[in-house]
């Protein structure tokens, strides 16, 4: 798997990724999170991209490698890549990989502080130091290790990380706890809905 910055050309390939993530939530009893039609909409994803914080994870569709290994490469901004739009698919041709085709299997936003919705918390954050925020994490269910890959990528870039999730998102709560985050309290989104907030 590789990580690279998302581009506007990726938006059509991201819609089925988010729909798959919603299906996972609904199957686990999380009926409210991301329930607005079309959420997250293109304008929100473009805002992530414009801020330099939208990322896609790609998996090699030809190579048998399906997990992050010592020979895999994380593509950083500035590396060459081109979107293969000849057939309208989500397949990517990466110059860094010699034209090996890869498909988008996940998306996440990794943004710098401050996060306005974290200004008020019913509880207490672990630190007042600058932090990175992880939002809008989504992947296909058959692709494993995405959460760990994202946290590893984010931890290299930020000494402190914050993340929040819906009270009914038991899968995410389990993964957050498993990766060393501490529950800090409740925060509220701009629409007034609450989220469980964590930091590490």
Question: How would you characterize this protein structure?
Answer:
Helices cover 24% and strands 29% of the residues. By secondary structure, it is α+β, with helices and mostly antiparallel strands. The protein has one domain (2-199): Aminopeptidase (3-Layer(aba) Sandwich), CATH 3.40.630. Strands 1, 2, 3, 4, 5, 6, 7, 8, 9 and 10 form a ten-stranded mixed beta sheet that branches. The protein is globular, with a radius of gyration of 17 Å.
Shape: globular
Structural class category: alpha+beta
Amino- and carboxy-terminal Cα gap: 25 Å
Tally of DSSP helical segments: 4
Any idea how many domains?
Answer: 1
- Assigned CATH architecture: 3-Layer(aba) Sandwich
The Cα radius of gyration reads 17 Å
Largest sheet: 10 strands, mixed
Q: Name the CATH class.
A: Alpha Beta
- Percent of residues in helices: 10-25%
Question: Roughly what fraction of the amino acids lie in strands?
Answer: 25-35%
Q: Give the overall pLDDT as a whole number.
A: 84
In the predicted model, the low-confidence regions spanning at least 5 consecutive residues are: 62-98
Summarize the structure.
With 200 residues, this protein is of the alpha+beta class. It has helices spanning 11-27, 42-50, 146-157, 170-178, and strands at 2-5, 54-60, 81-83, 91-94, 101-112, 122-123, 132-139, 161-165, 182-188, 194-199. It has one domain (2-199): Aminopeptidase (3-Layer(aba) Sandwich), CATH 3.40.630.
């Amino acid at each position: 798997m590789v990580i690279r910055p998302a581009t506007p050309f990726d938006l059509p390939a991201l819609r089925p990724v988010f729909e798959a993530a919603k299906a996972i939530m609904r199957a686990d009893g999380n009926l409210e999170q991301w329930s607005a039609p079309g959420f997250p909409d293109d304008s929100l994803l473009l805002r992530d991209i414009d801020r330099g914080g939208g990322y896609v994870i790609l998996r090699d569709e030809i190579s048998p490698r399906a997990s992050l290994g010592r020979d895999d490469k994380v593509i950083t901004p500035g590396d060459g890549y081109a979107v293969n739009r000849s057939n309208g698919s989500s397949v990517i041709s990466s110059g860094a990989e010699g034209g090996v085709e890869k498909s988008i299997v996940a998306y996440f936003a990794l943004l710098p502080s401050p996060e306005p919705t974290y200004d008020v918390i019913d509880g207490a954050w672990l630190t007042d130091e600058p932090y990175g925020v992880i939002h809008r994490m989504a992947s296909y269910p058959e692709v494993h290790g995405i959460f760990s890959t994202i946290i590893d990528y984010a931890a290299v870039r930020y000494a402190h990380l914050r993340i929040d999730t819906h009270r009914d998102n038991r899968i995410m709560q389990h993964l957050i706890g498993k990766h060393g985050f501490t529950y800090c309290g409740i925060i509220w989104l701009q629409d007034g809905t609450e989220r469980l907030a964590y930091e590490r």
